[in-house]
Amino acid sequence: MKNILVPIGSSDSAFNTLQYAIDLAQEIDANVYAISVFQEFSKAGSASKLNTVIKEESESRLEKVVNGVDHKGVSVVAHPIKGGVIEGVERFNKHVPVDLMVLSPRSNSVRDEVYLGNMTGKLVKGTDIAVLVVPENEKFKEPSNILMAFKNGKFDKKRHLEPLRKLQKHFGTELHLLHVETPESDEAMKEVSDDLKKMSASYKTTTNATTYQGVLEHFQSVEPDMLCVVRRKRGFFKKLWEKNVVLKKEFFTTKPLLILRVQ
Q1: pTM for the full predicted model
Q2: If both were cysteines, with which of 38, 97, 130, 202 could 58 make a disulfide (CB 3.0 to 4.6 Å apart)?
Q3: Packing angle between helix 118-126 and helix 85-95, nearest 10 degrees?
Q4: Are 147 and 228 in contact (CB under 8 A)?
Q5: Is the pLDDT of residue 249 over 90?
Q6: Are domains 3-133 and 145-235 of this chain identical in fold?
């Protein structure tokens, strides 16, 4: 895990999110890239002046956040990007391969009932990059144990587990697996990849209506420092991300949330 990307939103949590990413990068010897994405209007008429203002505000916001944190000797590169947020991140990823995105749950939204705001939801839903969602005001600490909840235990490519493997290898983290069987589960989903089995300190199966209900039932028995889930085209969060915003009543955790992306 060499490159960590932090898209900077408009909320004050951007400072804490970037600092968390830097603290993590310092531990694992990674680089941090902070980006702000701005959308230009048509350049016809007065829109040209408006575009200049939008770009300058985006650059100023990015500079303020980057200068407002402790770099701790970590390489932190700031880069404003023109375009939509998904398009901007994908374009950046082609030039600088991103291993992990560190996001605030609500980069722009201030609605208290929201867990994942629109920008964060878009990035989780629309990119193939692993994401670490950092709760507001969360300070980095070494994860001593992680609860990984999943419905489908098959991981055909090692790279899908790489962010999890990196954390475990570096910090000596115990990985506790929770295999949730739901009404949608079939026999193939009940298999677990050998790579994942080798990484685990414990393995438990449970039957619940949803993966999230399984998490709620077994969370306290593990008391994890971090929760890990899997985002598949068909799987956990499938229904949640039919829209970008995720409400707290639909899903919520006070711990850092690592979302692995499996195509």
Answers
A1: 0.91
A2: 38
A3: 50
A4: yes
A5: no
A6: yes
